[in-house]
Amino acid sequence: MHGYQIIQVISERSGGNWTPSPGSVYPTLQHLEDEGLIEPAHSEFGRNVYALTEAGSIAQAADGTATPWAEAEKDVDDDLVELRDLVHQVLAATRQVAQAGTTAQVKGAQDVLRTARKGIYRLLAEDDSET
Which of 2, 49, 118, 129 has the fewest beta carbons closer than 10 A? Predict the structure, then answer.
């Protein structure tokens, strides 16, 4: 796999709870290559892809720690996952309005987003003892 594929796989395996940045993945790949655990492999598409070396396979077999995505998936609050998903849905809808909406639709979307922002802050300002 190449770096971007690794990022995607980790994100998928963690249920979207962890998406490492390229700034952490690519230096890690370089470090693993320096340690002789991975090596560049042939790619038909011209991207730098990596494969485990024999030493990397041995190290992987000997490693008994949990996978990082399993750790990211543990103790996930379903309400927070749903909140994140809703934010992404709102962002997608906002992009659609920005790309294809009329001036009136853009203004309307701005009003909706302002109202939503204020409502969310209002929730934070409420006294927990009241609910």
Answer: 129
Between 81 and 111, residue with greater pLDDT: 111
**From the candidate CATH numbers 3.30.420.40, 2.40.50.100, 1.10.10.10, 3.40.718.10, the one assigned to the domain spanning 3-73:** 1.10.10.10
Strand (E) or helix (H) holding 38: strand 38-41
Percentages (nearest 5) of helix, strand, coil residues in the chain: 65, 5, 25
Distance between CA 16 and CA 81 in Å, rounded?
8
Two structure tokens written together for 118: 């204020």
Specify the 3-state DSSP secondary structure of 43.
Answer: coil
Predicted TM-score (pTM) above 0.70: no
